[in-house]
Structure formats: structure tokens, C-alpha cells
Amino acid sequence: MAKIDTRDVPRTIDAVWRIEQTRILAGLARMVRDVGLAEEFAQDALIAALKQWPLSGVPANPGAWLTATAKRRAIDHFRRQTMADRKHVQIGHELDSENNSGAAEIEDRLDDDIGDDMLGLMFVASHPMLATEARIALTLKLLGGLTTEEIGRAFLVSETTVAQRIVRAKRALAASGEAFEIPRGEARNTRLSSVMEVLYLIFNEGYSASSGEDWIRPQLCEEAMRLGRVLAGLAPDEPEVHGLVALMELQASRFKARVDGSGDPVRLPDQNRARWDHLLIGRGLAALERSESLAPQRGPYAFQAAIAACHARARVAEDTDWARIAALYHGLAELTPSPVVALNRAVAVSMAYGPEAGLALLDPLLEDPAVGFYHLLPAARGDLLFRLYRFEEAAVEFERAARLSPTARDRIFLERRAETSRSRTVVG
């Protein structure tokens, strides 16, 4: 046992638990085929540590101690079961067999399989059969180690709502009999896409909040990036995984410059690039290079990362290679056409070839109901009209964008742009 001041034990347990809980949970989930049960056994092990370690001291290998204790709780649980169904019988035999082979051997096996266990848990938590909100909540709970309170605070919903989503997701997974093994072939690609989608949704919610008073939520971005790096380590030959990591790192590099001292948004051309995080830029560019070396044809994440890299490489806003960005958006639109991509392409074209060229691409989107309530469409149109000195029309667009804006910060920002446009109208 490690000799430490007993007053430090609770803090040590908390630190060990934050580091080890996902690994323990992933191994248990694979063994018992039930996320809910796996969580119960892991929590039992944590409670046991809280009781025993203050008296006996912290074990030399606290992670292995927690794993072995959780395993014993699982074995005891299934031994007490009345073997009412074949599944429990089978699992009980498997666990008994593993128990007979010795705890040390089991722990070795858990360590050996940890990569697959973690990846398997990611696949389960992000299963396409679950609603998007449930996938996000379950991923943050199981893999991020966030509490329901923390998740609720991040997404501005009640702790009860988060808990209900997680419970329903676990029940759905248990009822489906979903295997915890890593899928292969086309199924693997589909499930991997789902995992990446969830991570990017989490990142985007932190990068540009969809509701509430705050414009950004760094904690969500950091968690998404951390899980993305874990995923890249588990699936090192997947180009789109590296593309996703590159995209998140490059976008996150602008975090400190995206808001001013009052927390208000700062537009990309107006950002102080000295405040960009060059460590993240370096990591993002390296991840993009890795992605492009694995696949000559870019996927959607690699395309977006390449666009972010154009911004990252420009020392001043005037150096931005907008023609290349417009070309990359053209490629992205051909690969995954969407009104949002079309909107971004129109903005890039306006920067490369003038606002009239951008407006010609933007105006057809006004007929698309998919972006009828998307505040960035009138915001972008207002910006192009402003650059064309059509200030009154620009003011109308900014006011409409402000009414549609989901966050208070965005609304205030757009109202100010409308006021500026109105003032130019008066002067003109």
C-alpha cells in the first residue's frame, strides 16, 4: 500500500476515479453486455474504495484494485441470480470461468483489450438507433465522465432531463441486445461515422452555443477534442478520424480571440491572431497531414479541416487564400451538398471575387425552407449588402437575423450591426 496522509485519500480517490473510470467501465460493459449494470458495478467498486482506502491506505495500483473489485461485484451479482434466462447463465459461466483463472489474469486481459473496449463503448454510446440527444448525453456520461448535472448545465437542460435521456438510452440498448464487439466491414464505417458525428455535435455546441446567454462553452469543446484524440489513437488508420481531430484543433485554436473582454463575439477578420493558440494549430495541421496521407480523396471532415487550415496559415486576415477556400467549399458541396455548405461557399466566393458574386449564390437559398429560420443566412446576406453599400437593406437583414438568433450574445451583436447599417443610411 502507498503511504500517504489519510487526509489526502478522498482527493486521491477522486483523481484515480477520473482517470480510471472509463477504462473500468469499458471493460465491464464488454463483459456483462449491459451499460447500466457495468455502471452499477463500477460505482460499487468506488464506494468500496471510499470505505477501505482511508483505513488501509491507497493500493500500489489503485486502478487494478478498482477493476478487480468491480469484477468481483459482477461475479457475485451473477452468482446470486436465479439463472432465469439463458443469457444470464451464459454470462455467469463466462464470469465464473474468468474468476477461476485468477483476478490477475482477468486484469491482464482487461489491460490487453482496453483499446477495443474503449472503442466498443464509443460505438455503443453513439449507436445510431438512439436519438441524437441521448447519444450525446450517454457519450459524455460514459466516456467523458461528466455527471448528469454537468451535462445538464452544458446543454441548458435540467439534470432530470439528462438522467431520463440516459436511462431511456440504456434501456433501449439493453432491449436491443446490442453486442459490445467492434463491428466490421461496412457496419464499422457506419458506426464510426455515428461516433464522429456525436463528437462533432458536442464540439459545435461548445464552439457556437445553440441557446442560452453564453456564446461559447469551452468545456464541451475540450471534452470533444479529448475523445477525438482517444478515437484517433484507437482507429489510427481512419483518415476521417484524423480529419475530425484536425478540424476541432484548428477551430479551437481561435477560441481566445473569438470573444472580447465582455464575452461578445469578434468576427474572424477582426480577431487578434496573436491570441490564436499556435500549439493547437500545429497539432491540427499535423492531424490534417496524417488524414491526407491516408486517403488521397478528402472526406467531409478533412475538407472542413483544410478550410480551417487556410485561415490558420494566414498571419493577417488580408493574407487569407479565399480562392482556395471557395474551391474547397465547392468540393465539399459536391461531396455533401447542404444549404449550410452552400451558404459558406457563397461567403467564401464573396471574399474571393466580390460581394455581388457571393450574393448571386446566396439569394437562391432564400427559397430553401431548410434554412428559413437559420439566422446566419440573413446575417451573411446583411454583410454582403453592407459591403455593396446597400445599408438600408443590410439593416433589415441584420434585424431579421437578430430576431432568429438563438443566443443573447448573437442577438446583441446583430442588433449592433443593424444600428451601424442604419447610421450609414442616414449619413448616405
Can you walk me through this structure?
- The structure is a single chain.
- By secondary structure, the protein is mainly alpha-helical.
- The chain contains 20 helices and no strands.
- The chain has helices at residues 9-32, 35-56, 62-80, 86-100, 103-112, 114-125, 132-142, 148-155, 159-176, 185-207, 218-234, 239-252, 278-294, 300-313, 322-335, 339-353, 355-362, 376-387, 391-404, 408-427.
- Helix 1 (9-32) crosses helix 3, helix 7 (132-142) crosses helix 9 and helix 10 (185-207) runs parallel beside helix 12 (239-252).
- The radius of gyration is 25 Å and the shape is elongated.
- The chain starts with 8 loop residues before the first helix and ends with a helix.
* Class computed from helices, strands and strand pairing: mainly alpha
Question: Which spans have pLDDT < 50 for at least 5 consecutive residues?
Answer: 101-114
What integer value in Å does the Rg equal? Answer: 25 Å
| Helical stretch tally | 20
Give the helices and strands as they follow along the chain.
HHHHHHHHHHHHHHHHHHHH
Strand content: under 5%
- Annotation, overall tally of beta strands: 0
Shape: elongated
Largest sheet: none
